[in-house]
Write a structure and sequence with these properties.
single chain, mainly alpha, 1 helix
């Protein structure tokens, strides 16, 4: 009977070792995926910053053009009066 118990214990231990090994592989894969996602987030953050800066510059350019157009319209208005 004790040999049967030892065999059962050995089977359980082997099963536990297999489960632990599988879980370690899953953890490694999840860590890799996490690193890839972190890199993607960092790249996206950099891209967002560049786009925000570009947007701000375009807004400033638009204001400059609006001021120029307004000045020209005022000059045209003065001429026609």
């Amino acid at each position: 009977m004790s040999l049967e118990i030892l065999n059962q214990l050995e089977n359980r231990i082997q099963h536990t070792v297999n489960v632990i090994s599988t879980l370690q592989q899953e953890i490694a894969a999840l860590k890799q995926g996490n690193q890839e996602l972190e890199q993607l987030i960092n790249d996206s953050s950099d891209e967002i910053k560049v786009l925000r800066d570009e947007n701000e510059k375009l807004k400033q350019d638009q204001q400059v053009w609006q001021q120029r157009i307004q000045t020209l319209l005022n000059k045209i208005g003065e001429i026609t009066q």
